[in-house]
Amino acid sequence: MKLNIKVAGVQCDISLGKPAENLAKMREYLQQLADQPLFLVAFPECFLQGYCFETFDEAMEQAVTLDAADLRTVQALAEEFDRHIVFGFLQRIGDKIFNACGLATRQGDLHVYHKVHLPQLGVDQFTTPGKRLTPIIVDGISIGLNICYDCSFPEPARLLALRNADLIVLPTNWPPGAGRTADYIPNARAMENNIYFMAINRVGEERGFAFIGKSKICDPDGNDLAFANHDQPEILIADMDISRARNKHLIRVPDKHEIHRFADRRPEIYSDISEQLKMERR
After folding, report:
1. Does 173 score more than 90 pLDDT?
2. Could you confirm whether 148 is annotated as catalytic?
3. Residue 130 contacts residue 113 (beta carbons within 8 Å)
4. What's the average model confidence in pLDDT over 159-183?
5. Taking all residues of the chain, what is their mean pLDDT, rounded to a whole number?
6. What is the dihedral of CA 177, 156, 146, 79, to 10 degrees?
7. Would you say residue 266 has pLDDT above 60?
8. What pLDDT is attached to residue 275?
9. Less Cβ around it within 10 Å: N or C end of the chain?
10. Residue 199's closest CA among 180, 209, 211, 213?
């Protein structure tokens, strides 16, 4: 049985340290999309506050707790426009900062994921890594959240898919040097797990970094459903048949060419991964 949804990703610029401006921009984009029957709209990593903070104190001043008015605003927008919203923000918990991804539901709830893999770049130099990879079920669709550098490792997407994620949404801030990641990795993560994958990047400049765009939405075969292959603002829209992501048994020629993305795995051969062996840096 088909289970069809329509999604959108907003490739846009972000104003550093100006959440009110960024929220106003979110409303403008949602208004542009108001006549579309969308299930979900995704915005880039650190959309609320920006990314290129240069000190812990500067980032901490911008980070918010989960009861913050700015987050309640996003929740209200999700309810008002009747669609789920994925967006990046900096979260404060005690004396720690997390690079967070929020999923504000049309029912008014807020689910939060913390970035697990942290590069030596921007605010990630001052954030604490997350520890959980668990899909979120909204309106019968299982959504996995990753952030930027997470997609450079196959394990997060695989674990989310093994936990029945239908779709992974990856808000990102890809700078120069990440072009090949943007071109190929979302497609690979989609194909190897037979899921849908959205990578939504930003554009514009921030403290010397010019972000490259290249947002894309991929289907379970690894094909591009939408690709903003440039560094300018764009809204990507794609239709998804979620039943495709739930069928891991792919029959190309009956009894002659059949593969199963999960049943064909040999996890007993991969035991070194689960042992978390540490490799010396070369």
Report:
1. yes
2. yes
3. yes
4. 97
5. 95
6. 160
7. yes
8. 67
9. C
10. 213
Active site residue 101: no
Choose the catalytic residue: 25, 46, 52, 115.
115
Compute φ and ψ for 74, nearest 5 degrees: -65, -40
Residue 268 pLDDT level (bands cut at 50, 70, 90) = confident
* CB within 8 Å of 14: residues ≥ 6 apart: 22, 44, 46, 47, 50, 51, 202, 204, 206
Instruction: Extract long-range pairs of 143-146: CB within 8 Å, 24+ residues apart.
Output: 143/40, 143/84, 143/86, 143/103, 143/167, 143/168, 143/169, 144/168, 144/169, 144/195, 145/86, 145/101, 145/103, 145/111, 145/113, 145/169, 145/170, 146/101, 146/113, 146/115, 146/116, 146/170
Q: Which CATH superfamily is domain 4-250 in?
A: Carbon-nitrogen hydrolase (3.60.110.10)
Q: Report whether pLDDT(251) > 60.
A: yes
**Apex CA 179: angle with CA 173 and CA 183, to 5°?**
105
Please tell me which residue in 45, 46, 206, 218 is annotated as part of the active site: 45
Within 10 A of 135 (CB to CB), how many other CB atoms are there? 22
pLDDT at residue number 273: 74
Residue 277 has pLDDT above 70, yes or no: no
Length reported for the chain: 282
pLDDT in the model for residue 86: 98
Sign of the C-alpha dihedral computed for residues 168, 169, 171 and 175 taken in this order: positive
Catalytic residue among 148, 214, 216, 218: 148
Relative to beta strand 84-93, strand 40-42 is parallel
